[in-house]
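In response to reviewer comment 3 from the previous cycle, which asked for concrete evidence that the modeling workflow produces usable outputs, we include below a single protein chain processed end to end. The sequence was submitted unchanged, and the resulting structure tokens are shown without manual editing.
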Amino acid sequence: MEIAKDTVVTLNYKLSDAQGNLIEESREPMVYLHGDYGNTLPKIEEALSGKDVGYQTEIQVEPVDAFGEYDADLVKVEPRNRLPTPLEVGMQFEGMGGEGDGQEAQIFTVTDIADDKVVLDGNHPLAGIALRFNLHVTDVRAASDEEKSHGHVHGEHGHHHEADDDGEYRTLPL
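The workflow returned the following structure tokens.
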């Protein structure tokens, strides 16, 4: 089956920076719903459209098409007493991305702790980095009607849903 809109694509990948330094390698296959559902980077979808099981490629994705350019304005220095304890480098907190009303909540990562100050970075960890993806397609299948209506893959390596106390469904982290 050819990769097209409303197909479920299973692939293995290696992610490196532009110099070839390995950032991440899939331990489990990546499974996503193809067709502008926002489940992977558009440049990956573009590279895989029309391909089939067994296809392998290497693509480079510039920051603007991946996680954006690094924005120094998203780095904040806050008094340590404004954050919970214990506090460690790598911890993440939700906060406001900018000043004023109407700002969206943003995830900030603790990147440094010194005396009574904490450095918080609101950039994605891969912001500003050109990324190289080695992709190997291992399976392609038609998406179910439920997957298409939910906008993501269900089942093994996909999202699982469970009813909460009110009988409403929520997506569980895998």
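The radius of gyration is 19 Å. We consider this sufficient to address the reviewer's concern, and the full set will be provided in the supplementary archive.
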